Amino acid sequence: MRAVQLLGPRSIALVDLPPPAPAPDEVMVRIEAAGICGTDRHLFLGEFPSTPPVTLGHEFSGIVVAGDLAPGTRVTCDPNIACGTCDQCRRGRVNLCAHNIAIGIHRNGGFAQFATLPRHRAHILPADLNPLHGAFCEPLACTLHGLDLGAVRPGERVTVLGGGVIGQLAVQLAALAGAEVMLVTRQPSKRAVARTLGATLTATTMAEALTLWPQGADLVLECAGVADTVQTAPLLTRTGGRIVILGVLPKGQTVQIEPFDLLFREISLIHSFLNPFTHARATAMIATGHIVVDPLISRVIPLDQAAQAIATPARPDDIKVIVQP
Ligand SMILES: [Zn+2]
Ligand SMILES: [Zn+2]
């Protein structure tokens, strides 16, 4: 079968591999859709630890062809396999597992014709779902964890920084929770999408956001992964409010934060990592259509264009590029 493998730092290629065989507690799926994520580009650049050679792709769904589920079942993959025995796992903090094995990072993932995954990482999707939608379960599960940590309440104001896929999903979740939502992004097309998904306000810059809501938002969600937005987030936060960082900054990057301001205004600065026990809820929201994903699909590309797409920077107006093997 054909698969897109990371072979080493800055080395990625379409290769021919023998089809995988499912272990007794696994399922094998024919991939229907796999999303390209910023993490895939970090992996390509060697900025994120992985174990090459490995087939990338951790945001995928497919149809069961063999293994521990009925053939023909459509499933989405929760890519994170926690060990279950380390100190963090035993405390229920599976996203902080010291020995986490991520499908598409440490073992072969979804930029391929077929993949295997443990049965317990497969969540069942409806047979009549648009096959492209399954690829959104993983990013939605990560966004759900951030919203859980931010504990948004109806009637609050939420500012979302960044109009990529996480930002657009965060806009929808906050609006569904009854919040008034503003999205901040420089990209006009991303502002337009957010307005159709529940953002009542949009701003081009953080300065503009501050003029729109001078008191700040109860909850600020950093979904851009940019030092400037992390550093400015407290300015956009209401006294007593919360900031949740979902964006990934490069390792080693630092920002300036004023603890005095955070203390005297009792602002919570929270980080959200991965998708602990949120994949089932994400699957349900995609299955019911409560989360709208069609406007988030920027391009659908075949497998033989995936390596090139991962090796080049994202286009400014790209929200999600889906690989359809
Ligand atoms: Zn991802
Ligand atoms: Zn563990």
Question: Can you offer a commentary on this structure?
Answer:
- The protein has 10 helices and 18 strands.
- It is globular, with a radius of gyration of 19 Å.
- It is an alpha/beta fold and 325 residues long.
- Helix 3 (137-150) crosses helix 4 (165-176) and helix 3 (137-150) crosses helix 9.
- The mean pLDDT is 97.
- Strands 3, 5, 6, 9, 10, 17 and 18 form a 7-stranded mixed β-sheet that branches.
- One zinc ion is lined by residues 37, 39, 58-59, 139.
Class computed from helices, strands and strand pairing: alpha/beta
The end-to-end distance, rounded to whole angstroms, is 10 Å
Overall helicity? 10-25%
Shape by Cα distribution: globular
Taken as a percent bin, the fraction of beta residues is 25-35%
Count of individual beta strands: 18
Bound molecule kinds, no repeats: zinc ion
- Written as H for each helix and E for each strand, in order along the chain, the element string is EEEHEEEEHEEEHEHEHEHEHEHEHEHE
* Count of separate DSSP helical elements: 10
Instruction: State Rg.
Output: 19 Å
- Average of pLDDT: 97
Which residues form runs of ≥5 with pLDDT under 50? none
Instruction: Characterize the main sheet.
Output: 7 strands, mixed
Short précis:
With 325 residues, this protein is of the alpha/beta class. It contains ten helices and 18 strands. Helix 3 (137-150) packs across helix 4 and helix 3 crosses helix 9 (279-288).
